[in-house]
TrEMBL record:
The keyword Nucleotide-binding does not apply. Keywords: Transferase. Coiled coil: none annotated. It comes from Chryseobacterium koreense CCUG 49689. This is chorismate mutase. Its EC number is 5.4.99.5. The chain holds residues 1 to 264 of 355 of the full protein. It is an enzyme of class 5 (isomerase). GO terms for molecular function: chorismate mutase activity; transferase activity. It comes from the Bacteria. GO terms for biological process: chorismate metabolic process. The lineage of its organism: Bacteria, Pseudomonadati, Bacteroidota, Flavobacteriia, Flavobacteriales. The keyword S-adenosyl-L-methionine does not apply.
């Protein structure tokens, strides 16, 4: 099997645009349940709830995630509010724990996609799974590395794949936290039109004001959905506070998004 032969039928289960929302990090059971409850109450069409429980932080001695206890909170979110649940995995132990908890969607973070040994380890731990695995672009603007990560997964018979465009690191001062470099994601899309492509405006923008514009720009060029960090109390978030939004703001943002009219 190769990347071109994947059916990626997992995405057909969802309406477009597919919205994945939830906090950057799981912090407490209460924070998770309140965020999930308010997303549901807002009426927004959000089928997948995300939360990082192992957090790759730039500097040491900060909050690095609550760890496996967060899996219980994710499962509670699924049971009580009917979301599918998603979390980041960065090594084989994470994969093992996430599969044991029957997490629906696993994603590989930008700092892991850059490292072929890490991706290989994750891929081997996932061998043959029918779970959906989403691969964020590497932090550096390297399309081959992004594709290589997918090839490593396919090499281990992981068949339900998608990618997340979260922008690329730069030392230049720009209005973005991670510059979108749209062309890289579009080159990916041209090469692999059947692999679902999801935008992550939160990590591209690094602020709240740019989110809607980036999400709309992505839908305009045919992306399948967006992953948007959403927190019950964004200002007090333990990670990525400046880019997270409340469930109510998320609902308004989604309401204003327009799907590309494919007939044009
Ligand atoms: C995240 O989704 O919270 C995260 C750490 O993202 P990235 O890997 O894109 O930096
Ligand atoms: Mn984050």
């Amino acid at each position: 099997m190769n990347l071109q032969e994947l059916e990626n039928s997992w995405i057909k289960e969802f309406q477009k645009p597919l919205i994945i929302a939830g906090p950057c990090s799981a912090e407490s059971e209460m924070q998770m349940l309140e965020t999930a409850e308010r997303i549901r109450r807002s009426g927004a069409n959000v089928p997948i709830f995300r939360a990082g429980i192992w957090k790759p932080r730039t500097k040491p001695n900060g909050f690095e995630g609550v760890g496996v206890i967060g899996l219980n909170w994710l499962k509670k979110v699924r049971e009580e509010y009917g979301f599918k649940i998603a979390t980041e995995v960065a090594n084989a132990h994470h994969v093992e724990a996430a599969l044991k908890a029957d997490v629906d969607i696993l994603w590989i973070g930008a700092r892991s996609t850059v490292n072929p040994f890490t991706v290989q380890e994750i891929a081997e731990a996932l061998k043959g799974t029918d779970k959906t695995v989403l691969v964020k672009n590497p932090v550096n603007p390297d399309l081959a590395l992004w594709i290589g990560a997918l090839e490593r997964l396919v090499g281990q018979e992981v068949k339900n794949l998608g990618v997340i465009h979260r922008g690329f690191s730069t030392y230049q001062k720009t209005k973005y936290r991670n510059v979108p470099n749209w062309q890289i994601a579009l080159d990916f899309k041209n090469q692999f039109p059947k692999i679902p492509l999801i935008v992550d405006p939160s990590h591209i923008c690094g602020n709240r004001t740019g989110l809607a514009g980036i999400a709309q720009e992505a839908l305009n060029v045919g992306y399948d959905g967006a992953m948007i960090e959403t927190h019950c109390n964004p200002d007090e978030a333990w990670s990525d506070a400046s880019q997270q939004i409340t469930p109510e703001v998320l609902a308004a943002l989604i309401k204003n998004l327009k799907l590309r009219n494919l007939d044009i």
